Amino acid sequence: MNEKLEAAARLYEEAAKELDLAARHCEVAAQHFRDNLVPRGAAHAWAARGHLLEVEARLDEQAREHSRRSSV
Amino acid sequence: MSRGAYLLDLGLVPYGEAFELQRSLAGAVSQGAIPETVIFLEHPPVVTVGRRTETGELHIPDGAEVEIVETDRGGKSTFHGPGQLVCYPILDLTKHGKDVKLYVRNLEEALVRTLAAFDLDGELVEGLTGVWMTRPPRKIASIGVHVSRWVTTHGYALNVDLDPSPFTQWITACGLEDAAFTTMARELGRPITVEEVRTSAIAAIAELFDLELEELPADEGAGLWSQPIHASLAAR
């Protein structure tokens, strides 16, 4: 496989893992809020936000790279 | 000038949940999504195994009600349980001198000051980690940290009022043969709660790391604090 495509594949796999983690934290946050455990719920909510920002940063970088190479 | 930071008092939290939470919050701190955050909690009984744990350190009897968890912190094996005050600072060391040794020294000093608030003379012992009561030496607090992209996870565990026998009977805690372990209750000769100690522990961390800690209220206002993310959303 082309090295650049392999790098892109790895990037999207890592993004998927980050999104899985974000989803898990959202589920745990929901449960804690439902159980009236506010600080624990909030902590998981912030943790989810961290993973989303990590993904966003990586995908933005990929988009910028694509834009640099695009001939259209 | 002190920097604002979040303070989370999470109560009794299973080690695995706290571990995942720390790693993810470290990512959020690293991204600037949330301010630096200091977590205080207790764990249900758990033996944690660090990166330098050697085989033979664990001798947990059959039927012992304790979880065993591998971690990415430095150090050897240790025990956590209710009655132990655990502090996990999620700090960006680029704002604290970019010096891991200094960070650990500050954690040790925070523990010494926390103990001093109860007229206990915690000391450092040459060549050994953690904080000790001396003559004879007995360990009262353990330290184990992890730093990634200059953001810290893990922290310290202060024995407030718990049975310290698992440190020696279940494991060779910290890899120290024949070491004695103690608690604040044992040293003071009276029961003491984690809640009593937490206030002094928070003050010591705030002072050592020059933080203005803001605690999330436990009953209402979830997520209503001003956060960096709010400013970035407003700017869009």
What does this protein look like?
The complex is a heterodimer of chains A (72) and B (236). The mean pLDDT of chain A is 89. The radius of gyration of chain A is 16 Å and the shape is elongated. Chain A is built from 2 helices and no strands. Chain B is built from 6 helices and 11 strands. In chain B, strands 1, 2, 6, 7, 8, 9, 10 and 11 form an 8-stranded mixed β-sheet that branches. In chain B, strands 4-3-5 form a 3-stranded mixed β-sheet, with no helix packed on it. Chain B is globular. At the A-B interface, α1 and α2 of A face β1 and α1 of B.
Low-confidence stretches of chain B: none
Percentage of helical residues of chain A? over 70%
**What series of H and E elements makes up the topology of chain B?**
EHEEEEEHEEEHEHHEH
- Count of DSSP strands of chain B: 11
Shape field of chain A? elongated
Q: How many strand segments of chain A?
A: 0
Average predicted local confidence, pLDDT of chain A: 89
List the helices and strands and how they pair.
The complex is a heterodimer of chains A (72) and B (236).
Chain A: H1 3-34, H2 38-69
Chain B: E1 3-12, H1 15-30, E2 37-42, E3 46-49, E4 67-70, E5 78-80, E6 84-90, H2 100-116, E7 131-133, E8 138-148, E9 151-159, H3 166-169, E10 180-181, H4 184-188, H5 194-208, E11 211-215, H6 228-234
Parallel strand pairs in B: 1-2, 1-11, 3-4, 8-10
Antiparallel strand pairs in B: 2-6, 3-5, 6-9, 7-8, 8-9
Helix pairs in contact in B: 2-5
